[in-house]
Amino acid sequence: MTRLRTTLALRLALAVSAVWLAVPAAAQETIKIGFFAPITGPVAADGASAKQSVDLAVKEVNAAGGILGKKVELIVYDDRLNPQEAVAIANKLIEKDQVVGVVSGSYSGPTRVTAPIFAKARVPMVAGYAVHPDVTKGSDSNFRNGFLGEVEGGAAGEYAVKVLKSKKPAIINMDNDFGREISAGFAKRAEALGSKPVLQQVYKYPGEKDFRPFLTRIKEAHPDLIFAAGYYDVAALMTLQAKELGLTTQILAEEGFDSPKFIELAKGTAEGVIIATNLDRDDPRPVVQNYLKNYKQAYNIDPDMVGASSFDAFMILANAIGRAGGTNRESIIKALNETKDYNGLTGKISRFVKGEVVKPVQFQIVKDGKFHRHGVVDNPEVITPPVN
Fold it and tell me: For the domain 26-147+283-354, what is the CATH superfamily, name and number?
């Protein structure tokens, strides 16, 4: 009887062990990729765009059989545009969720504070559109699909002088990482080409709602172009209030204006605004036109640069995992660094230079309530990021 009890107990223990051993094996049937964005808060429309686009990318990859035969499991967090929240999220993704890589669908503030955390843990991260240099600084495992602020701003400066023939631009920008980096890049390139800004106005964000004092000072300076840096929520306020003041100077803006929400909220005053961005809606390549169609069908709204950049960030990471042949993080990092001639949604990526993307900067104009192609800057001197 004692021997029978012992045998039964042993069998039970083995059965329980088998159950517990099966749990991690099942978990390994998916490839976990982390994602964070400002899904709620002042820029929730951008967060929604980023998440919805990455959802489409995950669906597309899984429908094609996944990566290396395994389905992708997207682990999603809302950073609420809060850097402290983002730090907690980074630690959860690394320690609790044990993801093989991360996509940032967020702004510079949350992305730059998480970058060193992911780098230390050797978890590859691809940022969709955050512009601050700290996102990739000092790491070979952090990458940026969007443009470095200096590059995008510099391309805008090049376009202002060489295409729009500006000789005395004015600048208005938000006082945060994004606004400072973009406007500094614009001023530096414009001045190098002989066009010195006549005035620069800086506003607080979030919080500023009345742009009339800033715009009045700009009007009095008589610039031939206004370079504006801000997000979609303030972009509409600028154009609405500029119309109130009778200010008709050409506005050249940046990717923060690249949102259907800007056009909607601007109530017709967005017409003629030109933006530097990385999404060319008139690009005939199937990867672009399929995305535009699928996004509109899925969400009943036109997509924007934020979503397209986040879509690309996920696809770049997925592509690297496939080329790495598995989920070993060091192999994935190596594959990301070896990315060449990648046919991305937001442009053909020739390569990464220390984590920074090299691809042309697109320019779109609002015409008949839609964004359309206006031009491109592909000068290697401008679009190749500086190597520090």
Answer: Response regulator (3.40.50.2300)
